[in-house]
Design goal:
By secondary structure, the chain is mainly alpha-helical. It contains five helices and two strands. Strands 1-2 form a two-stranded antiparallel sheet. Strand 1 and strand 2 form a beta hairpin. The two termini are 34 Å apart.
């Protein structure tokens, strides 16, 4: 039987932050690069507005997000916790996560576009999604505050 591994809470927070930053910068940069430089359609049958240039811009955004997170974690003091859990973590690991995260973000976007096209849906339920995201963020904040109040998180 394997022993359970308990990770410091910071590692989970870093994963959540890294995921959100990579996804947001991938989408934003893909949109901006596609609008500014896009000429070559990526998969017009699935998503007629997505371009190869936008896809490349998305990867650039994912890499930038990974580097920004690496620097923020390193200089905020959280990185020492990550090094305890995984010694020798370098920026290369974050770059790999940036590429992988950007790939998964863009693949998910294309799959969503394919479903929308197949079922003739103009937009997914955007307002409900925004409300659920808002509730999720509030829930995470309340959970952190609750752990701090119970002494699970200290300022040491």
């Amino acid at each position: 039987d394997a022993l359970p591994i308990y990770l410091p809470y910071e590692v989970g927070y870093m994963g959540i932050i890294l995921t959100i930053v990579i996804a947001m910068l991938t989408d934003t940069c893909a949109y901006l690069f596609g609008m500014g430089f896009g000429h070559n359609k990526l998969i017009p049958e699935v998503s007629p507005k997505k371009t190869v240039e936008g896809c490349i811009g998305g990867f650039v955004g994912g890499l930038v997000g990974a580097v920004v997170c690496y620097l923020v974690f390193k200089f905020s003091g959280w990185f020492t916790v990550l090094e305890i859990v995984s010694p020798g973590v370098s920026i290369c690991a974050f770059l790999i996560l940036g590429v992988f995260g950007s790939y998964m973000t863009q693949l998910g976007d294309l799959v969503a576009s394919a479903y929308k096209r197949k079922f003739n849906i103009k937009d997914f339920i955007q307002e409900e999604f925004k409300q659920n995201l808002d509730k999720s963020i509030k829930s995470i904040i309340l959970n952190i505050n609750n752990k701090a109040a119970n002494g699970c998180i200290t300022a040491e």
